[in-house]
Write a structure and sequence with these properties.
Layout: H1 2-16, H2 38-42, H3 61-66, E1 79-83, H4 90-100, E2 104-106, H5 112-115, H6 139-144, H7 151-176, E3 180-183, H8 190-198, H9 204-217, E4 226-231, H10 234-244, H11 247-250, H12 257-275, E5 280-285, H13 292-300, H14 322-332, H15 336-340, H16 357-368
Parallel strand pairs: 1-3, 1-4, 2-3, 4-5
Length: about 400
Amino acid sequence: MAGVFRFGVVGIINRTSSKPLAKATIPCIIQSCNISGKIIRATQNIVKPKPYPYKTKPYGLSQALFDRTMKRLDENSKMIVVEGPIAAGKSAFAKELADDLDMLYLPQPTMDTIYINEYGYDLRQLDPQLPESCKSYDVKNFCLDPNGLNAANFQIRMLIIRYMNYVDGLAHILSTGQGVVTNRCPFSDFIFVEAMHKHGYMSKGARSVYYDLCANTMTEILKPHLIVYLDVPVSKVKENIKKRGVDYEVKSKVFTDAYLNDLESFYKQRYLKEITQHSELLVYDWSNGGETEVVVEDIERIDFDRYDQHDPKLKDWRLGNDWEWCEMRMRFTNEKGELMNFFNVPRFDVPELTIEAEDSKIYEEIWDNAPGNRYLKGYNKEMGDTGILFKNKTPTYS
């Protein structure tokens, strides 16, 4: 592990100080190169278009004709992902980094995305009425009962909500021009699948389904500009878990030395090696925390524009013209529902991922009649919605 870590740091330091490569000979529309921190940007007279309200207003062909995308993008219109082991301090650091770079902080999603509906009702309250195969299962359940029937389904759902969250981040960048800093991303999710499979928490069949889903979806989204990996040894991770005192983490049957070492191995030996072919990478020893200002200075030194059109690194962010940027923006705003449909891979050969017909019928009856679930948001009279007879718009996909 240490050898990989040292190589990563040296490689990054050398690359950030090297001369830029020759410019592309084939014209292409790319973003400005170097990210700048809030302090530097405060001294510049930066004038940007008003952020497009992509959450409430569609962005389709007619909107794209009058609201082009490239004019919104500058050197800080980047996707930055903070990665690292459990309890490394990723969330606190990512928030500080986003603030220092004047970017949006996008928290890591949780299973609340699935289990708490738009009216705030927690659907986990329905568990006593549901068959075993349909009961809720989240990170707390996994920590306390990793061999549970729904463990594999839980990890696949985590991939889906990470994907949704990441698409939201891409939509934000292209619609507002503001960069995004997020905690973990769908590209690194597989490390948990590998660790689960190795320790018997996920079957070979479920693992196969997971990678079928990845093959069908990951090529539809843009890889990050930059990965910041906070390196913390397993002994310190366990100390941090105990220190932050989350009961189910402290009592977890999962967070053994073997499991945490395997997560670290899959992170360093596979994910970081693979992602650095496409994204910039900074690695820091975060055993005792660190200074966000130092990371900001390192980021400011990276020239994101030093690769030519033949280099796979940052290729996702090199498009041929402004209209291609508009089409990309439409994909992550108007067409989010279509992107999520790519997860509908017909695999019914894995028992732990399928539900018997009778159980499914019970689940649908109970779930669909839960408070706030009978109709689309805005059309549930029992939840206080009014003026239903006069509404003629369908809520947008979220």
